[in-house]
DNA sequence: GTTAGCAGTCGGGGCATGAGAGTGCTAACG
DNA sequence: CGTTAGCACTCTCATGCCCCGACTGCTAAC
């Protein structure tokens, strides 16, 4: 339904348009695309591509700009999703210089990603699907108030201030903590609630808090991802009048980008691209999202994404998202004590 | 040097300008400000205020807009920095509904503040000036790798992945942990390093990690504050062309707003307002910052700030920042087990 | 199928015009 | 001396116009 040459021309137009942010004239294509044909021939092809819906003409006497369908074709024809070796090295080197903490990794990923692709990066923390208790610690603060620190499988640490029904000293708390640790070690929140044991009032209270924390952790999905790089996006001519940026920001900041995207169920492996109108939410229909899961199968997963105008550099963004997701996966795998499988292609 | 009536007129103009975002004509003042004089008289006063530098005229035949000096006068003359009782109740009610975690409080503060004042809110976590160890926990992950969880005075919890020089099991780690806890309980990082004790190789390594974590915690100032509400700011006509917003965002996101402000040394108590050119950094000289410290004296302090166009509602922003800082102070005081002193005025 | 040539179309910049808004000034008033 | 009415003046903004330049679509020839 589309000849090889049309496809070449289409991809050339899109590449140029991404770089110039202006309609691409036939002249330019004939000169630079090295097809050995004249502008007139190009124009014929362009007219065809326009009829087929791959191109849009802002007005009669102007060059073409790609439609969502055009971008889709362009993205599908990208073959190489690997970042150049030297860039890979540069990135992984940066990760070695940072503190060995999940938050630091994720935050760094967001910052790097935003800078590398000059758009907004969205990276969520890795989340266990069904968290299991690794360790529990109760620390007395004052009278009946205490701090409970919960360490879950995968080096997830959660703390919460709690208040017992009566004053307790550190010694009692340590004893309670020891008992609960031995009782609940390695269990999920559900298993803990189902466990039938004799507990004192205080132990019961501590257990309740523990279960609550674990349930909260299990239930909060895509909460508060790291957002970085708004100022890069504002640089794009698409967002010159800030009204357009505002709508998008409101969506991403307030309602949570990931919640909006998820309905798409991009559950398969690899990088996914959602272009313009393919997005469900209206506020983001002149944007594209490049998104990828990372994590360890059956243990924990997170999401890494880039949001930018549909006219973003996919050839740069896709490999970058892909590579960073694999780096994060490996780091997270270390937390769960498992090796991470070889990288796979899209 | 400025009569009572001039001052009234000036403040009226500024109030109007903040509301309308347009130059204020003499007509409007005469009609609404209830001074019992005609527009002509107002014009005379306006001419005076312009000569004195309180007002600026965008062009000859236009109303006036306030200069930074004018805003300064306006802000100084604000007397009531208390939020209405019912708003106070609404806010404190919201805090009761949220998880009892420092991060949750600070994040909520940023969100609330941004929404209440319709501008960007910047809130930093409370930071101890000289943190002391409350509890240490070592958790084995795999072979030589482990997780160290450090609880500091003030319910600050930090975790880090560490690697020992040799494989260690959980039992050994627990023993090491118990020993270090009894040795270092309540000490600062400096005191820990100065403590002369016989340690095994592993204990030495764990101590080093502990000290590093505490030093990092002590040294990182104003790191990664919670930012909220960019989309509100983009609504302001001042930022209609997103170029102006970009510069500001770059400053706040990349270089850290608080670092830029700090040189001003607003060490005293209460809310401070930095207007336009009073800011050191050029990128923010058409903005104002309303900023306030919170925390417990000598134990921990954080910062809460609002950034917006110089034409922001100071009468709303100042009380809101003030009240939220006192709420946060009280919450943080609870963490340190001390009562928080009565609220004081600016 | 490809190409040259040419007419046709549309956006954007430059410019003049006119209306409207609001002031500055002057002269009169109490 | 402070206040006021009246009026001329100034400047912005919106509108309309025109023309230029950029590209295309079409046609006819290769």
Q: Identify the most extensive interface between protein chains.
A: A-B, 42 and 42 residues
Number of helices of chain A: 12
| Regions with little confidence, pLDDT below 50 for 5+ residues of chain A | 342-346
| Oligomeric state, counting identical vs distinct chains | homodimer
Class by SSE composition of chain A = alpha+beta
Strand portion of chain A, in percent?
Answer: 15-25%
Share of helical residues of chain A? 40-55%
What is the chain-wise order of helices and strands of chain A? HHHEEHHHEEEEEHHHEHHEEEH
Major sheet of chain A: 6 strands, antiparallel
| Global morphology of chain A | elongated
Number of strands of chain A: 11
**Distance, first to last CA of chain A:** 25 Å
Alpha-carbon Rg of chain A, integer = 26 Å
Summed over residues and divided by their number, the pLDDT of chain A gives a mean of 90
Molecular structure report:
The structure is a homodimer of 346-residue chains. The longest helix of chain A is centred in the C-terminal third of the chain and has 22 residues, at 314-335. The first copy, chain A, starts with a helix and ends in an 11-residue tail after the last helix. Chain A is an alpha+beta fold and 346 residues long. Chain A is 47% helix and 18% strand. Chain A binds a DNA duplex (30 and 30 nucleotides) through residues 23, 25-27, 37-41, 43-44, 46-47, 57-63.
């Amino acid at each position: 339904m589309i000849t090889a040459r049309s496809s070449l021309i289409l991809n050339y137009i899109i590449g140029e348009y991404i770089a110039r942010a202006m309609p691409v004239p036939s002249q330019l294509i004939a000169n630079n695309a090295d097809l050995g044909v004249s502008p007139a021939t190009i124009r014929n092809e362009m007219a065809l591509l326009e009829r087929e819906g791959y191109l849009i003409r802002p007005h009669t006497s102007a060059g073409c700009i790609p439609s969502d369908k055009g971008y889709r074709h362009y993205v599908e024809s990208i073959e190489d999703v690997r970042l150049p070796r030297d860039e890979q090295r540069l990135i992984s080197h940066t990760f070695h210089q940072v503190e060995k903490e999940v938050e630091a990794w994720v935050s760094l990923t967001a910052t790097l990603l935003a800078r590398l692709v000059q758009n907004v990066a969205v990276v969520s923390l890795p989340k266990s699907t069904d968290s299991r208790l690794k360790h529990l610690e109760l620390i007395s603060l004052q009278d009946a108030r205490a701090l409970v620190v919960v360490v879950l499988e995968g080096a997830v640490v959660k703390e919460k201030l709690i208040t017992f029904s009566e004053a307790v000293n550190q010694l009692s708390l340590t004893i309670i903590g020891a008992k609960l640790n031995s009782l609940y070690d390695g269990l999920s929140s559900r298993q803990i609630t189902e466990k039938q044991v004799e507990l004192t009032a205080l132990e019961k209270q501590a257990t309740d808090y523990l279960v609550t924390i674990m349930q909260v952790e299990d239930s909060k999905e895509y909460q508060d991802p790291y957002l970085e790089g708004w100022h890069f996006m504002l640089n794009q001519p698409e967002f010159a009048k800030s009204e357009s940026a505002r709508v998008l920001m409101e969506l991403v900041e307030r309602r949570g980008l990931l919640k909006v995207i998820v309905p798409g169920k991009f559950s398969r492996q690899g990088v996914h691209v959602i272009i313009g109108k393919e997005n469900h939410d209206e506020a983001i229909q002149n944007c594209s999202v490049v998104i990828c899961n990372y994590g360890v199968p059956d243990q924990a997963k997170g999401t890494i994404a880039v949001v930018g105008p549909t006219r973003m550099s996919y050839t740069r963004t896709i490999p970058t998202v892909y590579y960073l997701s694999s780096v994060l996966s490996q780091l997270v795998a270390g937390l769960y004590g498992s090796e991470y499988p070889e990288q796979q292609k899209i």
